[in-house]
Design brief:
The complex is a heterodimer of chains A (about 325) and B (about 325). Chain A has about 325 residues and is mainly alpha-helical. Chain A is built from 15 helices and 2 strands. Helix content of chain A is about 65%, strand content about 5%. The termini of chain A are close together. The N terminus of chain A is likely disordered. By secondary structure, chain B is mainly alpha-helical. Chain B has one domain: MetI-like fold (Orthogonal Bundle). Helix content of chain B is about 70%, strand content about 0%. Chain B contains 13 helices and no strands. Classes of the chains: A mainly alpha (about 325), B mainly alpha (about 325).
Chain lengths: ~325, ~325
């Protein structure tokens, strides 16, 4: 936080206190939905749909157990005949007259999100670094038009592009494959990665490379040994932004994947299950899915402005 | 990059040396193209090629679920049908209602918060970070869990509003009058931080001496706001509003999970209708034409966006 930017007449202690209270109040109210979801993950299904909504409740891991398992309802006699439960989670499930019939697909979907997220982030940052360096350091014909073209690819509504991509992937055998989704997310993220990284390269003084070239380095050596090490922080920040985008993406995932390559966002809404009442499981899945993003947001807080404006606004 | 072992770095460096030795005499221009070409090619393949294909499809009667059926060129009939259809105007109206109200609410809240945060009270940075969290979350997942929060009988939203305002149970998602507001509220909850962050950047770009000079000229608080603060923040605010306006114009994920366009078609925004036409009714040609119309609109807005962006930069 920069100091010394107090405007005259705004710095009275009372004014500060009131401003601080108002902002804190907004923040606390805005946090209610997230805290509520976190709490719901630890409620029992009846507690999650009680009236009035329960603020105090007996925490249980039933939601998390339901999230990771599929269960079937059985008669009390049948459950009796199985003998004592072998684990704490079996016991939880049997209290509802259910037995575990296998793992749910949540872990697979989560894993898909990780693979597709990291795969596309790596590619987008790799290609983006090269392109950003090219745009920053060389005279490229039609540079501004190319940069605008790259940015404009982000403006297309995903649903509009999804029609031909759906057809294209069907032709190429990429429908519902991780490879297809990685390629697609790479293309979507390239606009962000090129624009952000170009900003970071622009900030590195050219003199460093020029000195290196005078010392006998080739252009590529100078890029590798002088520029890249200086870009580390920028590359890390860009990578996190790309990762968060790929992690959060829903429209393409919904329209282009169904089974094997489906990521978590289209899957979480269908966890709801039997009777549409299993909110704790949905909340548990939501919590596990959102947690990494919250952590990254806190880590990235000083780069956030840059990330959300494609590198246009820096401080 | 970081944390690679020394030997790996050396090997990689040696590889780069060999590579560059091969390329010695290669001009800067060719390096530039080698660096830029992969990006451009990938974007051509995954963005421009599909776009051209969409344009072609928009003049045909193609249906993606019947690949064997002969494709007929039908000229501009899809466009004529679209522009003559009352429903389309309904969807565009719903979209406009959503965009306009989210922008108004988010500007008011976001600018207000930024002015408050700019007073640099203790803990400002902590609270700012907390406020920023919602905008980084997955809109689809946000939509999903807000359906729970919006449950009319058991949800906490209805309970809190009823507690303070005595409204009784509110069926935010099921009621025709409330559903359009339900999506506006969630979008505002999620994206106010975006406007706030950009306004804050604008406020911090104002040099102190302007206020000091105004002080000497005995300007009052309102005059200072009107003649110094507002003009300086405006480009940042414009940037934020354009960017969010474009994003909300093509809004899909949040609303699909929240209301899926209902009840009836009260919250059926343009993108949601597009998805229904393209992937449920499989009218590929017709929906391609709609996609092109949406794209042209957004592209126009995008051009303005880039102009503002360049102004902010300089």
């Amino acid at each position: 936080m920069k100091s010394g930017i107090l405007k005259p007449g705004q710095a009275t202690p009372l004014g500060k206190f009131l401003a601080g209270s108002a902002v804190a109040l907004y923040a606390l109210v805005a946090m209610i939905p997230l805290v509520w979801i976190l709490a719901t993950g630890f409620k029992s299904p009846p507690d999650s749909i009680s009236y009035p909504p329960k603020v105090f409740f007996e925490p249980t891991l039933e939601g998390y157990v339901n999230l990771f398992t599929t269960r079937s309802r059985q008669t009390a006699e049948y459950i009796e005949s199985l003998g004592p439960p072998k684990s704490w989670y079996e016991e939880l499930v049997r209290r509802r007259n259910m037995v575990i019939s296998g793992p749910s697909r949540f872990a697979d979907r989560y894993w898909n999100s990780i693979v597709i997220g990291f795969g596309s982030t790596f590619l987008a940052v790799f290609l983006g670094t090269l392109a950003a360096y090219g745009f920053s350091r060389f005279k490229v014909p039609l540079k501004d038009d190319l940069l605008f073209f790259i940015l404009s690819t982000r403006m297309m509504p995903p649903v509009a592009v999804a029609i031909p991509i759906f057809l294209m992937f069907r032709q190429l055998g990429l429908s519902d494959t991780a490879a297809g989704m990685i390629l697609l997310y790479t293309a979507v993220n390239l606009s962000l990665s090129v624009w952000l990284l170009k900003g970071f390269v622009d900030e590195i003084p050219r003199e460093y490379e020029e000195a290196a070239v005078v010392d006998g380095y080739s252009r590529l050596q100078a890029f590798w040994k002088v520029v890249l090490p200086q870009m580390r922080a920028g590359i890390a920040a860009t990578a996190i932004f790309c990762l968060i985008f790929a992690w959060n993406e829903y429209a393409f995932a919904l329209l282009l994947t169904s089974g094997t390559a489906q990521t978590a966002p289209p899957f979480i809404p269908i966890i709801i299950g039997e009777g549409g009442l299993d909110w704790p499981a949905v909340a548990a899945g939501t919590t596990l899915f959102l947690m990494p993003v919250v952590v990254f947001t806190v880590l990235l807080r000083n780069q956030l402005l840059r990330g959300i404006t494609f590198g246009a606004v820096r401080k | 990059m970081a944390g690679s072992t020394r030997s790996a770095t050396n090997r990689a460096a040696a590889a780069a040396t060999r590579f560059s030795a091969k390329l010695r005499g290669v001009s800067d221009a060719s390096i530039a193209w080698i660096f830029i070409a992969p990006t451009i090619l990938l974007l051509l393949a995954i963005n421009i090629f599909p776009l051209l294909w969409t344009i072609y499809l928009s003049f045909t009667n193609f249906r993606a679920n019947q690949p064997g059926r002969p494709v007929r060129w039908i000229g501009t009939r899809n466009y004529e049908r679209l522009l003559g259809s009352e429903d389309i105007w309904g969807y565009l109206q719903a979209t406009a209602h959503f965009v306009i109200w989210t922008m108004i609410l988010q500007i008011a809240l976001g600018f207000g918060l930024a002015l408050l945060i700019n007073r640099n009270f203790r803990g400002a940075s902590f609270w700012t970070t907390i406020i920023l969290i919602p905008m980084m979350l997955s809109p689809a997942v946000v939509g999903t869990f807000w359906t729970y929060i919006y449950q009319p009988q058991t949800g906490i939203f209805s309970y809190i509003i009823d507690f303070f305002a005595g409204t009784g149970a509110l069926d935010m998602i099921g009621s025709v009058t409330l559903a359009p507001w339900s999506i506006i509220i969630v979008d505002t909850w999620m994206w106010t931080p975006y406007i706030m962050l950009l306004c804050l950047a604008g406020l911090r770009s104002i040099p102190d001496y302007l206020y000091e000079a105004a002080e000497i000229d005995r300007a009052n608080a309102l005059q200072k706001f009107w003649y110094i603060t507002l003009p300086r923040v405006l480009p940042f605010l414009m940037l934020a509003v354009l960017f969010r306006g474009i994003e909300n114009f093509k809004m899909f994920d949040l609303v699909v999970e929240l209301t899926s366009g209902g009840p009836g078609s009260t919250t059926e925004l343009a993108s949601i209708n597009l998805k229904r036409e393209a992937f449920e009714k499989w009218r590929t040609g017709y929906s391609s034409a709609f996609a092109i119309i949406l794209f042209v609109t957004i592209f126009g807005l995008g051009n303005i966006y880039v102009k503002v962006l360049n102004k902010v930069k300089s």
